[in-house]
């Protein structure tokens, strides 16, 4: 039964992938004038222009171009970087793991921080903790993450000199310096996430704390602590699971900013540089990978939700 | 509810009231910015590089001796302009599409909603970068990109609301009495679905400013001689170890503006909620 | 029947201070429940019956404050004076409660068996595994077929009646001495209603539990209870055995409630149809008798002086200046009928 459910959800994912890849592909159609000239600049030689045109398949009808491109993409062939000539899939592979480490850290910070603030705020209503949580929930989404990043750098790197301001070491190479270097970018990435989860979980908890089944729990003789952790929280988490799934996409986008500021060699930095160099194949590749990741995460979110909520029939 | 009662209820919310005043002043500043700036925003004065705040330069000068206060004022114009322009695209394209899709339903609606789901799945910044990189890097294109990102959100919202309103008895009654589709959409659907759309729009004003400053910060938005708060912070960032406070002012400006937009949205939600009669 | 008193409520006054004056959801009520007795507390919503029952459980919202002279003696111990921690030992163990809507009152994400076992583990020194065994017995006892399988079912997989049986199983888990049933059948179908009421009565006989039955429906009372307390605007207006009340309701409000019992033959009537007018705003209670705005028998005195709960000739207690007598009832029936229409 569960397998059938999985398959059904997967069937929903496929048209989604088709549509989003079509959107990514058609970005090239937005390029005003001759896209090849736009990419290579006016000084390009005639042969080079023709070669790129062929490589991009731009001499064929649009729909055919798309299927051609998609077919190649499925086989891992995303063409070559217009600027460096490097294979796009190679460039992506190098950066993907870096970005994933950053996003996972950001996700952990968001979930832990969000749970902490939301629960303390509910457990100690109208205490200073409650006000901190509410303040944070409001402010966290209003601060752009580049601003957070800079404030953190100023205080923790420049003033206190606790952690380096920039740079990145992979967790598989040196876990200790990884932790030192990931803390600031991870936090900059997660501030909005902490705020969103805090806000959503807090209001969700408030609702469930007033629910009849929590009253039943109290009538059995549970403590406030048990009422929150055993009865309220699991129910309150259900809608938040979806929020967390959506957060992943936002965070993936935000890596662009955070990686640029902290000089982390991930996909975000790759795409920013590529735009500066009009390296459109790389841009397309990065956007494609990020979208696929978002769709996969949404798929996983759906499944987690179904597993957490017994009321959902597979 | 008349406009007057809505406005009264909005102003009864303290934070919304303050935010409204703040944003009002900001819009006025943005309109008048070119006339009231004390200095040309990028006029260099190498004799006064990075001077601290003084009566002459209220917020000091940057690395080239330009007046930060003037840049800040011009930046407000960019922010307001970008936000208003960006919100027009979903309002004039997304909302009508959503209404049509919801009103007529059928296969077109299905396909349309799949496309909307698809676009929404793409992280906003990534899509914005993709669009600006294709269209070319400048403020106008950044605003277009933001507008395009918002469009599916509004289409989905308008569609959902239309579905609700469509089955209301008064719409049925209008249909039976022979009203045409266009008439029903203009007279019944649009007025009834506007409250949630207005609320969403006010939140999206904040998001637009957030994205605009982010793009500008990355160098993918406003280009000189246009000034964005994002650019100012980027400049401050390049001198972060010498003069970290240079980015404080644009930072505060961004923060307050976005907060004000959010509070206004919260207030509007309360004020426009038909269920929440004043106590 | 045992005559020992289990619960004694003395001058319970539960007030909510507000800027516009004190709201008095429960305004000086006293009653007692003997061991093994089923007492019904009857009234419309807003009469204070739920606040009274939640006071016994110590589960009222924080806004509600008790007057210092109020006391709720349970086996001689004043529940209002106990600390939260001590109360927790009594809740679910000595006093248990079942609620109106079994769907929303059961935790949707936990299996039934676990929800029953939780009570047991909280109060007895047993493992979850042993508690599950007790839970199985309980499910059998409350008449849930195929109990073994149901143990792992989630609330949404049960029917309404089964859910309420499961709620009762949770309440019975620790052999409580007092069971408070707050509108236990209101959310259920009519046929299932009487099944649940029968179950409650059987359990009472089997275990000798006392039951405080909270309801707005005198029909439910007639089927189940030994004694009846009628509440209106936070006060008890009439008290007596079921026979006494049904044979001769003396308070006009009780009479109105009686008329609203859906008869098997006629169309059912809402309380509002049987008693004209609405419950007065708790901040603007009338002078004199609280019921005066809706009473067909009001006299001048009723507008000026509040009646007190007094023992009357028949042995029941009633708070009314002009209690109805059996002889007058038939006559007055015509009169009230005129008012109703
Ligand atoms: S005291 Fe008077 S008003 Fe009150 S119930 Fe009796 S007759 Fe009616």
From TrEMBL, chain A:
List the Pfam families hit by this protein, alphabetically: BPD_transp_1 (PF00528), BPD_transp_1_N (PF19300)
Q: Please state every residue range assigned to the domain named ABC transmembrane type-1.
A: 96-301
Q: Which GO terms describe its cellular component?
A: plasma membrane
| GO biological process: one example | transmembrane transport
Positions of transmembrane segments: 12-31, 102-124, 136-158, 178-197, 236-262, 282-308
Keyword Transcription regulation found: no
Tell me what topology the record assigns in the membrane. Answer: Multi-pass membrane protein
Write out the annotated subcellular location.
Answer: Cell membrane
Going by the UniProt record, its keywords in alphabetical order are: Cell membrane, Membrane, Transmembrane, Transmembrane helix, Transport
Q: Which SUPFAM superfamilies match?
A: MetI-like
The UniProt entry, under InterPro entries, shows: BPD_transp_1_N, MetI-like, MetI-like_sf
- What family classification does the UniProt entry report for this protein? Belongs to the binding-protein-dependent transport system permease family.
The name on file for this protein is ABC transporter permease
From TrEMBL, chain B:
User: Which residues are the signal sequence here?
Assistant: none
Cite the ABC transmembrane type-1 domain residue spans from the record. 76-265
Please name the InterPro entries in this protein's record: BP-dependent_transpt_permease (IPR050366), MetI-like (IPR000515), MetI-like_sf (IPR035906), OppC_N (IPR025966)
| CDD domains, per the entry | TM_PBP2
Matching entries from SUPFAM superfamilies are given as:
MetI-like
Question: Where, per UniProt, does this protein localize?
Answer: Cell membrane
Keyword list, A-Z = Cell membrane, Membrane, Transmembrane, Transmembrane helix, Transport
Q: Which residues cross the membrane?
A: 15-37, 82-108, 120-150, 202-222, 242-265
- GO cellular component terms listed in the entry, alphabetical order: plasma membrane
> What biological-process terms (Gene Ontology) are attached?
transmembrane transport
As for membrane topology, the entry says: Multi-pass membrane protein
Family as reported in the entry's similarity comment: Belongs to the binding-protein-dependent transport system permease family.
PANTHER family given in the database record: D,D-DIPEPTIDE TRANSPORT SYSTEM PERMEASE PROTEIN DDPC-RELATED, OLIGOPEPTIDE TRANSPORT SYSTEM PERMEASE PROTEIN APPC
Entry protein name: ABC transporter permease
Species per Swiss-Prot/TrEMBL record? Peribacillus glennii
UniProtKB/TrEMBL annotation, chain C:
The UniProt entry, under SMART domains, shows:
AAA (SM00382)
Check the record and name the InterPro entries matching this protein.
AAA+_ATPase, ABC_Ni/Peptide_Import, ABC_transporter-like_ATP-bd, ABC_transporter-like_CS, Oligopep_ABC_C, P-loop_NTPase
> Where is it mainly found?
membrane
Signal peptide range equals none
Q: Which Gene3D superfamilies match?
A: P-loop containing nucleotide triphosphate hydrolases
What terms describe the molecular function in GO for this protein?
ATP binding; ATP hydrolysis activity
Note the Pfam families from the entry.
ABC_tran (PF00005), oligo_HPY (PF08352)
**One Gene Ontology cellular component:** plasma membrane
PROSITE patterns per record: ABC_TRANSPORTER_1, ABC_TRANSPORTER_2
The record places domain ABC transporter at 7-258
Q: Which Gene Ontology BP terms does the record give?
A: peptide transport
Q: What NCBIfam families does the entry give?
A: oligo_HPY (TIGR01727)
Entry protein name:
ABC transporter ATP-binding protein
């Amino acid at each position: 039964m569960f397998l059938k459910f999985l398959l059904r959800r997967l069937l929903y994912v496929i048209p989604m992938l088709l549509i989003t890849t079509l959107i990514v592909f058609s970005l090239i159609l937005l390029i005003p004038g001759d896209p090849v000239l736009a990419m290579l600049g006016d000084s390009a030689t005639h042969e080079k222009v023709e070669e790129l045109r062929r490589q991009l398949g731009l001499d064929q009808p649009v729909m055919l171009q798309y299927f051609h491109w998609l077919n190649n993409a499925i086989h891992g062939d995303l063409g070559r970087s217009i600027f460096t000539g490097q294979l796009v899939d190679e460039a992506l592979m190098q950066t993907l793991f870096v970005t994933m480490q950053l996003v996972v850290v950001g996700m952990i910070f968001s979930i832990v921080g969000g749970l902490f603030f939301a629960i303390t705020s509910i457990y100690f209503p109208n205490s200073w903790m409650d006000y901190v949580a509410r303040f944070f929930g409001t402010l966290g989404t209003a601060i752009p993450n580049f601003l957070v990043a800079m404030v953190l750098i100023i205080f923790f790197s420049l003033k206190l000199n606790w952690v380096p301001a920039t740079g990145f070491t992979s967790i598989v190479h040196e876990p200790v310096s990884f932790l030192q270097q990931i803390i600031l970018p991870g936090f900059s990435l997660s501030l909005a996430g902490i705020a969103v989860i805090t806000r959503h979980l807090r209001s969700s908890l408030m609702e469930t704390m007033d629910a009849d089944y929590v009253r039943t729990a109290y009538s059995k003789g549970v403590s406030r602590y048990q009422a929150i952790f055993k009865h309220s929280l699991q129910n309150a988490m259900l809608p938040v699971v979806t929020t967390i799934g959506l957060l992943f996409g936002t965070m993936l986008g935000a890596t662009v900013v955070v990686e640029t500021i902290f000089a982390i060699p991930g996909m975000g930095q790759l795409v920013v540089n590529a735009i500066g160099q009009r390296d459109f194949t790389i841009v397309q590749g990065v956007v494609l990978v990020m979208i696929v990741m978002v769709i996969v995460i949404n798929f996983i979110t759906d499944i987690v939700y179904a597993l957490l909520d017994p009321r959902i029939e597979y | 509810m008349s406009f007057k009662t809505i406005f009264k209820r909005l102003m009864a919310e303290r934070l919304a009231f303050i935010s409204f005043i703040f944003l009002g002043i900001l819009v006025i500043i943005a309109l008048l910015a070119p006339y009231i700036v004390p200095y040309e925003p990028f006029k260099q004065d190498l004799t006064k590089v990075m001077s601290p705040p003084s009566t002459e330069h209220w917020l000091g000068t940057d690395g080239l001796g330009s007046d930060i206060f003037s840049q800040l004022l011009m930046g407000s114009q960019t922010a307001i302009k970008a936000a208003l322009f960006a919100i027009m695209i979903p309002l004039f394209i997304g909302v009508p599409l959503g209404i049509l899709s919801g009103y007529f339903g059928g296969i077109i609606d299905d396909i349309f909603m799949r496309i909307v789901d698809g676009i929404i799945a793409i992280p906003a910044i990534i899509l914005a970068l993709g669009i600006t990189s294709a269209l070319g890097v400048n403020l106008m294109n950044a605003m277009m990109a933001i507008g395009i990102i918002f469009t599916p959100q509004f289409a989905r919202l308008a569609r959902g609301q239309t579905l609700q309103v469509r089955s209301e008895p008064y719409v049925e009654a209008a249909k039976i009495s022979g009203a045409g589709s266009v008439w029903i959409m203009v007279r019944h659907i649009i007025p009834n679905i506007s409250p949630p759309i207005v609320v969403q729009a006010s939140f999206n004003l904040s998001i637009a400013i957030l994205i605009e400053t982010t793009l500008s910060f990355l160098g993918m938005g406003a280009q000189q001689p246009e000034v964005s708060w994002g650019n100012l912070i980027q400049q401050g960032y390049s001198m972060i170890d010498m003069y970290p406070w240079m980015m404080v002012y644009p930072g505060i400006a961004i923060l307050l503006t976005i907060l004000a937009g959010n509070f206004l949205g919260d207030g509007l939600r309360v004020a426009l909620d038909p269920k929440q009669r004043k106590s | 029947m045992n005559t020992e008193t289990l619960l004694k409520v003395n001058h319970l006054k539960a007030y909510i201070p507000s800027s516009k004056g004190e709201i008095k959801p429960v305004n000086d009520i006293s009653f007692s429940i003997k061991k093994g007795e089923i007492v019904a507390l009857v009234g419309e919503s807003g009469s204070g019956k739920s606040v009274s029952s939640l006071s016994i459980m110590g589960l009222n919202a924080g806004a509600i404050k008790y007057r210092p002279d109020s006391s709720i003696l349970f086996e001689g111990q004043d529940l209002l004076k106990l600390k939260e921690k001590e109360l927790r030992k009594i809740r679910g163990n000595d006093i248990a409660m079942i609620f109106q809507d079994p769907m929303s009152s059961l935790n949707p994400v936990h299996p039934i068996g676990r929800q029953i076992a939780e009570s047991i583990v909280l109060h007895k020194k047993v493992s979850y595994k042993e508690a599950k065994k007790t839970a199985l017995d309980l499910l059998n006892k409350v008449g849930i077929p195929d109990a073994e399988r149901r143990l792992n079912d989630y609330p949404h997989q049960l029917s309404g009646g089964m859910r309420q049986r499961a709620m009762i199983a949770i309440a019975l888990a620790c052999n409580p001495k007092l069971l408070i049933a707050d509108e236990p059948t209101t959310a259920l179908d009519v046929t299932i209603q009487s099944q649940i009421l029968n179950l409650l009565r059987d359990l009472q006989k089997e275990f000798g539990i006392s039951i405080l039955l909270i309801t707005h429906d005198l029909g439910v009372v007639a089927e189940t209870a030994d004694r009846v307390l009628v509440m209106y605007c936070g006060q008890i207006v009439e008290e007596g055995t079921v026979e006494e009340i049904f044979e001769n309701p003396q308070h006009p409000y009780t009479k109105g409630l009686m008329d609203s019992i859906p008869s098997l033959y006629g169309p059912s009537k809402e309380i509002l149809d049987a008693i004209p007018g609405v419950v007065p705003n708790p901040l603007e209670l009338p002078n004199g008798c609280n019921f005066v705005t809706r009473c067909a028998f009001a006299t001048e005195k009723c507008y000026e002086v509040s009646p007190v709960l007094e023992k009357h000739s028949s042995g029941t207690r009633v708070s009314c200046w002009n209690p109805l007598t059996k002889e007058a009832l038939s006559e007055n029936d015509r009169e009230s009928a005129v008012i109703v229409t």
